[in-house]
Amino acid sequence: MPAWDRRPTSQLAKQREAAVRTQVVDAVAPFSPFWRARLKSLGRTATQSSTLDGLSQLPAVGERDVCPDGDPAGAAALVLQAGESGFALHAQGPVLRRALARRLARPGTYRAVVEADTRPTSYVWAGQGLRFPVASTRSDLDLVARAGARLWQLLGLTGADVVVSGLPTLPTASVQALQLGALGAGAPLLAPGDDVDDLAAALKLVPVTVLALPSATAATTLDDLDDLGVDLSALTTLLLVGAPYDDERAGVRAALTRIGVPDRCLVLAAHVPDGHRLAWAECRESAGRTGLHTYPDLDLVQMVDPETGEAADRGAREVVVTQLGFRGTALLRWRTGDVADNVTADPCPSCGRTVPRVVGLRSGALVPLLALRNGTRAVDVRAVAGALVGRADVQDFRIVLGPSARDGADEVIVHVVPPAAADPSDVAVAVARDVRAAAGLLPTQVVVAADGVLPTDGAPVSRRVLQR
């Protein structure tokens, strides 16, 4: 059989269909309290939703769907809850046969196999507007490590590369993916954290060839390390964690030039979508030009309309992820808050890999962190748009995010066009009330506009959300 990243499209499609069916029928539908209730409310069975077409018909969900009252404890309903009897009914044949065979010799071994597949043992933090733990079983961690070995292949790294991580020492999926990736690849990794002094001290101890930094602060960190006298001339790869924007990548390249790092050092990106546990990455051959490579046997990546969460096939759309083979927190059609231009199954023009690639991804674009006048917070613009879509008293709208000309504080301004017969004051009050209920904050201002004069400047995040 060809390698995981070289299989023909027909073979990948067959493998993915089987993985989706197993995940939906034998894991999520019977053992996830959230999805058991949701499928029932939608009037759908697990079998109807276990094909690629059937899964695509399910509305995408995010943290506000799981925790509608804003209490992150609701995310526990995503964790699969299976006992020994459930394991016997739904476990994969080889795993079940091995467990039963061991049980004959040592009765306690059966429970150990069940718990390895079903009991959460590790947690990382996720969430955008909320903050909640994502649970992993021992078998989940094996999947992350296996994907991590593939990550090293994508990045063109070997066991001879020495990796130093400047990521914050927080229990996040990005930190876990990097650490388990090094374990899976059998490569050395030193993780002193994001404190510049500690990072500089670590870099002076080892002959680093790969430096991993958060994409948002990488350029500043490089300048700080140079000021502290750190020699990065042996660096061959700078790994930006968090899907850098174009200006962030340009700033990093400029910083590398300033501090004298040779041109042979490639700037590549790796990104773990919110809620997911696997790091997508750019291949070394592309030098960051062909998008993020995914794992077709471990996740299914689709695109939806950012406003409605329904399937869409054109324009900037939100990335949704379905995890395949995971047994702790199991996600189906999970809204990541990331916006991308496309998900393509065409072979990578640089490396020839046949895995799907996410092209033009903007991390967290739909849940930006804004410095509002009442404090800094993540604002879920999907929820703001959700309060406006389909209203009888709103014909069209725009959501404008950006700094105020008066004091520089970020603002959320909602422009609406009501029908001719509607009272503008009533519409503005109703819109503000519903936005607060859906998104947890009052808009800075609700502007009632005439048809045809809605703002269109700025970079569109989705069709009707603008960032100045």
Using the CA coordinates, give the radius of gyration.
24 Å
Biggest sheet layout: 6 strands, mixed
Fold-level CATH name of the largest domain: Rossmann fold
Total number of helices: 14
Task: Write up this protein.
This protein is α/β, with parallel strands linked by helices and 468 residues long. It has helices at residues 9-31, 33-42, 52-56, 63-66, 84-90, 93-105, 107-118, 138-154, 173-185, 196-203, 218-227, 246-258, 381-386, 424-439; strands at 120-126, 132-137, 163-165, 189-190, 210-214, 237-241, 266-271, 280-281, 292-293, 299-304, 317-323, 334-340, 342-344, 357-359, 369-372, 375-378, 396-403, 410-417, 445-448, 459-462, 465-467. The strands form six sheets. It has a six-stranded mixed sheet, with helices on both faces. It has a five-stranded mixed sheet with strand order 19-18-17-21-20. Strands 9-14-13 form a three-stranded antiparallel sheet, with no helix packed on it. It starts with 8 loop residues before the first helix and ends with a strand.
List the topology elements.
Blueprint: H1 9-31, H2 33-42, H3 52-56, H4 63-66, H5 84-90, H6 93-105, H7 107-118, E1 120-126, E2 132-137, H8 138-154, E3 163-165, H9 173-185, E4 189-190, H10 196-203, E5 210-214, H11 218-227, E6 237-241, H12 246-258, E7 266-271, E8 280-281, E9 292-293, E10 299-304, E11 317-323, E12 334-340, E13 342-344, E14 357-359, E15 369-372, E16 375-378, H13 381-386, E17 396-403, E18 410-417, H14 424-439, E19 445-448, E20 459-462, E21 465-467
Parallel strand pairs: 3-4, 3-5, 5-6, 6-7, 17-21, 18-19
Antiparallel strand pairs: 1-2, 7-8, 9-14, 10-11, 11-12, 13-14, 15-16, 17-18, 20-21
Helix pairs in contact: 1-2, 6-7, 8-9, 11-12
